[in-house]
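Revision sheet: structure tokens.
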Amino acid sequence: MIELVHPWALALLALPLLMRLLPAYKESRDSVRVPFFDTLVELSNQRPETGAMVMRRDRAQQFLVNFTWLCLVLAAAKPEWIGPPIEQQKSGRDLMVAVDLSGSMETADFTLPDGSQVDRLEAVKYVLEQLGDQRASDRLGLIVFGNAPYLQSPFTDDHKVWAQLLAETEIGMAGQSTAFGDAIGLAIKLFRESDSDNRVLIILTDGNDTGSMVPPVDAAKVAASQDIRIYTIAIGDPATVGEEALDTDTLQRVSELTGGRYFQAFDREELAQAYTAIGELEPELYETISFRPRQSLHWVPVGVALVLYMLYHSVGAWGSWRRSRSARA
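Predicted:
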């Protein structure tokens, strides 16, 4: 299908008709008076007279001028070829994962399916890799936090890169404390910079907040105002005391304020079940984008007019050359 971007330009087609209403162009020339003018008249057998001469075009010239004007007006109207609609699907959800890298995460109290005993971070990595494979429709991001939160991976559709950046995390690389509330604050900032309306934050921690500038509950209230749902997962031993003790009340409160849920994962099976439950609460979401490809055709009428113009003058030049050659012969 062909559409005109500037259809109003077709009004210019009437401009030559308006030009016909104007009088023909006349040009006056100065004459030279010579004393032997009468003698020239007698020798030429012509009588002097006054008047004007109007140049006339042949039919080919008239057609070429009118057709060229038509082509130029069509080019100004900018015709475009509109192709059939094309639909594409893109990620419909931004899912940020915040992982605690404090020193307590090195406690080896998780067992993998092969029977090996690993620390809490390795268990988290094991389950998160499966999460990346299962959330094909989501744009994943990764925040690590300790003394302060740090962006490990911005939102991306490339889950392999996301998994690689997750695998490169190490215990203590962000400090030994647990800035739980500041991690929520950093996630809020990143969600504001994204264009998705469906925002989910998953936080994994094995301790309480020990160094945040913004308390977790206050940060959760801000997240709720930004339509960000937070799912908190408490991992590790619930009997831990001191600074590394789990603050389950705060974790539950953060989830409730944002419309999320709180999970306890004290072994690998419970951790996997928590992600399965989150997957059921946040099913895969796609956004469909439809567009129609456009290809400009304004060069076609210009090219046709140029070809006819060159053809006309080439034929005229060839005819003049033949006539001059015949005259010399």
